[in-house]
């Protein structure tokens, strides 16, 4: 594995949850696996007052608590010697002179040759402030072998106009190849495996089109609610929080054409074509193609669960969706006429993310089949949990006659001995250090995804007659979402925690 160049990683928002729960544990695990630079520094930047030693002690306890696998004590202590801290007012551009001085100091100590990665783990309101201040102090220029990169967390914009403005503003200070717009879903091993499954095997790609695929289903379900973040979620909702970014990016991998090579621009050139081919949903057709819902109070496994409107910082008359289901089409030669169904929701029976390719039935049925096996041929790509691949097909029931039942052929990553799945942030942080932006969203792709969801958001905002349906916490969303399907043989799959199980009530 190629080692990245010596670098300083600057984390803005170093005292926040993202840093302690995801970023620092991921960097510590990269160090433990010998993937970090030969020499490096991690500089935490925030308003909170810490000394270097106090910040290291905090990171030590956070890494021990949140790392996805046990940390080697000796390696963790060595890692933390490379961690430093700087307290500044990140909203004050003048304070960034202190950052410049600190970077110059660390540059000499660590021999990092001016290679800096800025990670904006801050509220979106500070993205442009930080970028502008970095540029004001000359900390953004490439050249003479020096590489500067900036990683921007989601949400990347609130709507199309704000996303376009954010892109335009960032490009005033950084080149496109310096900007890494992170979507942690693309760092998941099984998402990347979609590309390998399709393009490394001669058996799948010939069937990956409108001639053989009946419909495609993508689900992202969470069993938790808003977890005390009602104020944030009121300004977001499921469409902005999940579908505009994670779900559409996943769709891009499923529907893209084969790239000419596995190089960043070659791959991203193909996903943008998918987003450009999405059939627009007109504002007066939103109810036909989109169903939104909001979880209501319920009793799950004997526990009383609050409804969304009962959550802290949520309006009593809130119309923010905690569930959204969209029927869409990719209008190109490969996918013409094939419906894609996407749903995302909170307070559902289980936590699961998966994509299901539903293949067409045989044109002539000559065998007796179980009534429950209307669609025997499904390819299920499980993103989380129990990551793996499942193929469903028909086989003869033992005994007399030719009755057919559905059976499973499955692969689980957990079956590979001595293999640990790296976290999404591990993969994406390493890619940023290596300068590989394949799994990061490009500016034009982000804008194109916003262009697709913007009319839906506008219709919801301007037309109070568009319904938001309640669904009891612990269920699979509003029953009205079934109205999106084109015929009675199509329906949502009810996935379970285990890849090979399915059923309406399996997690209740």
Secondary-structure map with pairings?
Elements: E1 7-12, H1 17-32, E2 40-46, H2 52-66, H3 73-80, E3 83-87, H4 96-110, E4 116-120, H5 127-136, E5 148-152, H6 160-170, E6 179-181, H7 189-199, E7 213-221, H8 230-234, H9 238-255, H10 264-276, H11 286-289, E8 290-296, E9 298-300, E10 303-305, E11 323-329, E12 339-345, E13 352-359, E14 368-369, E15 378-384, E16 388-396, E17 403-412, H12 424-434, H13 443-462, E18 469-472
CATH topology of the largest domain: the name is Dihydrodipicolinate Reductase, domain 2
Corresponding CATH superfamily of the largest domain: Dihydrodipicolinate Reductase, domain 2
Which consecutive residue ranges, at least 5 long each, have pLDDT under 50?
A: none
Strand elements, count: 18
- Count of discrete alpha- or pi-helical segments spanning 4 or more residues: 13
**Major β-sheet, in short?**
10 strands, mixed
Percent helix, as a range, is 25-40%
């Amino acid at each position: 594995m190629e080692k990245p160049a010596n670098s300083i990683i600057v984390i803005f928002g170093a005292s926040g949850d993202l840093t302690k729960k995801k970023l620092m544990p991921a960097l510590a695990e990269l160090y433990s696996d010998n993937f970090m630079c030969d020499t490096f520094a991690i500089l935490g930047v925030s308003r909170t007052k810490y000394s270097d030693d106090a910040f290291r002690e905090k990171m030590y306890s956070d890494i021990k608590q949140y790392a996805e696998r046990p940390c080697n004590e000796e390696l963790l202590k060595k890692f933390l010697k490379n961690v430093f801290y700087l307290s500044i007012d990140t909203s004050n551009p003048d304070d960034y002179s202190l950052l410049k001085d600190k970077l110059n100091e660390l540059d000499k100590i660590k021999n990092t040759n001016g290679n800096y990665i800025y990670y904006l783990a801050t509220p979106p309101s500070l993205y442009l402030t930080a970028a502008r201040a970095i540029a004001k102090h000359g900390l953004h220029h490439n050249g003479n072998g020096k590489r500067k990169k900036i990683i921007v967390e989601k949400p990347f914009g609130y709507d199309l106009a704000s996303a376009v403005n954010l892109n335009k503003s960032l490009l005033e200070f950084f080149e496109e190849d310096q900007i890494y717009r992170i979507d942690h879903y693309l760092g998941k091993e099984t998402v990347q495996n979609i590309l390998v499954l399709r393009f490394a095997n001669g058996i799948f790609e010939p069937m990956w089109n409108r001639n053989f695929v009946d419909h495609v289903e993508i689900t992202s379900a969470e069993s938790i609610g808003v977890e005390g973040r009602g104020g944030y979620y009121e300004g977001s909702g499921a469409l902005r929080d999940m579908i505009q970014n994670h779900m559409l990016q996943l769709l891009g991998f499923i529907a893209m054409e084969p790239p000419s090579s596995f190089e960043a621009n070659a791959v991203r050139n193909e996903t943008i074509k998918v987003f450009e081919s999405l059939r627009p949903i007109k504002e007066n057709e939103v109810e036909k193609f989109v169903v939104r819902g909001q979880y209501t109070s319920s009793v799950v496994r004997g526990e009383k669960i609050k409804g969304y409107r009962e959550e802290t910082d949520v309006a009593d008359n809130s119309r923010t969706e905690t569930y959204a289901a969209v029927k869409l089409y990719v209008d190109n030669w490969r996918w013409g006429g094939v419906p894609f169904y996407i749903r995302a929701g909170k307070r559902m029976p289980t936590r699961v993310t998966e994509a299901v390719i539903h293949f067409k039935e045989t044109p002539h049925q000559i065998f007796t089949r179980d009534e429950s096996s209307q669609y025997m041929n499904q390819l299920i790509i499980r993103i989380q949990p129990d990551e793996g691949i499942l193929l469903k097909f028909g086989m003869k029931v033992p005994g007399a006659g030719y009755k057919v039942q559905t059976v499973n052929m499955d692969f689980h990553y957990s079956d590979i001995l001595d293999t640990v799945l790296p976290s999404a942030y591990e993969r994406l942080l390493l890619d940023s250090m290596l300068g590989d932006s394949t799994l990061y969203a490009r500016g034009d792709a982000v804008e194109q995804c916003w262009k697709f969801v913007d009319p839906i958001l506008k219709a919801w905002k301007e037309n109070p007659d568009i319904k938001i349906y309640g669904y009891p916490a612990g269920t699979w969303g509003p029953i009205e979402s079934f109205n999106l399907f084109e015929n009675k043989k199509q329906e949502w799959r009810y996935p379970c925690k285990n890849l090979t199980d399915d059923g309406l009530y399996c997690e209740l």
